[in-house]
Design goal:
With 346 residues, this protein is an alpha/beta fold. It has 11 helices and 16 strands. Bound molecules: 5-S-methyl-1-O-phosphono-5-thio-D-ribulose. 5-S-methyl-1-O-phosphono-5-thio-D-ribulose binds next to helix 2 and strand 9.
């Protein structure tokens, strides 16, 4: 099995997701600036995976700080955290991972600097370990919602590649299969970055899970034919009212699911829920380079000079969401209440 992101000998090793499935290349990062670059360029992507990578980036950056006392250490630490936090704006797990590292630094400020650094490395490794456990738990809760002999539509990649391992939406599918159910998957291609075609299809095939690839505009046709029993997607940030930011195109899939009476589920760890945000309109949406739209595999497919928009995420309103599957259980409408209850449990 592949490793998405890993701490190895004081460096961060990541599979380069930009060139999958053609090439399986692992890259080694020895300083926090190149980790920040890797997050920005989407060598690593997917909300939980970038949270883990950012935490490891903070650990790497901390190891190189030459300060002798905490005040001087903290000054450098803040520079590391600020750069890593500037890489991508939508997935809240990035900020969550950095914040958790900042808290550990504060709580251990009386330790000798070398011990504090070791503590930070241990925390980053712990975030990685926990993420796999959390996904397995999401898989167990979500697996129960999936009926035997179901076909699930998913969008983007919310799998092992988007997390430390196992996945959220794909974790639900894996959980259902591990519980003995027969499950087939339809994967949306997910233009423009093709996470569905390149990554979801790749990791499901590797796992011998039955996967059929469609382009994004085929979802309505496939649903109307009665071929989809449920939709399961991941999330980049969930507002406290249950509005869900996820990969661009998710909102259209949710509307289609509603029109066809198909349940639309969101699978995400509690760290993806941003309690500081009341509703989806407040979630910052990343706009990426227009070349992702005008070019396909490096080749121009649109005329020079055409106006382009490239929002990387959209927001699905809570009324379209049948359930939010987390490690602490499944939240259902009304979400303000059910989400709060999950945090009390989680
Ligand atoms: O731009 P990406 O590839 O980082 O976007 C990823 C998604 O939108 C995923 O669906 C989301 O992060 C959930 S991953 C478990």
């Amino acid at each position: 099995m592949f490793r998405t992101v890993e701490w190895k000998n004081s460096s961060v090793v990541m599979i380069d997701q930009r060139i999958l499935p053609g090439k399986e290349v692992y890259r080694t990062y020895r300083d926090y600036k190149t980790v920040a670059g890797a997050i920005k360029d989407m060598v690593v992507r997917g909300a939980p995976a970038i949270g883990v990578a950012a935490a490891m980036g903070v650990a790497l950056g901390s190891l190189k700080i030459k300060a002798k006392d905490y005040a001087a250490f903290k000054k450098e630490f803040d520079k590391v955290a600020t750069l890593l936090a500037s890489t991508r704006p939508t997935a809240v797990n990035l900020f969550w991972g950095i914040e958790r590292m900042r808290r550990v630094a504060e709580e251990n400020k009386t330790l000798p600097i070398e011990k504090l650094k070791a503590r930070l490395v241990a925390e980053a490794k712990e975030i990685h370990r926990e993420d796999i456990e959390i996904n397995r738990s999401i898989g167990r809760h979500g697996g129960r919602l999936i009926k035997n002999n179901s076909t699930i539509l998913t969008h983007c990649n919310a799998g092992a590649l988007a997390t430390a391992g196992y996945g959220t939406a794909l974790g639900v599918i894996r959980g259902a299969i591990e519980a003995g159910k027969k499950v087939k998957v339809f994967a949306d291609e997910t233009r423009p970055f093709l996470q569905g075609a390149r990554l979801t299809a790749w990791e499901l095939k590797k796992d011998k899970i039955d996967v059929t690839l469609i382009t994004d505009n085929m979802a309505g046709y496939i649903m109307k034919k009665g071929l989809i029993d449920a939709v399961v997607v991941g999330a980049d940030r969930i507002a406290s009212n249950g509005d869900v930011a996820n990969k661009i195109g998710t909102y259209s899939v949710a509307l289609l699911a509603k029109a066809h009476g198909i349940p639309f589920y969101v699978a995400a760890p509690l760290s993806t829920i941003d309690l500081n945000i009341k509703h989806g309109d407040q979630i910052p949406i990343e706009e990426r380079n227009e070349k992702e739209v005008t070019h396909l595999a490096g080749k121009r497919v649109a005329p020079e000079g055409v106006s382009v928009r490239n929002p990387a995420f959209d927001v699905t309103p809570n009324r379209l969401v049948a359930g939010i599957i987390t490690e602490a259980g499944v939240a259902k409408a009304p979400y303000v209440r059910s989400i709060k209850a999950l945090f009390r449990k989680g």
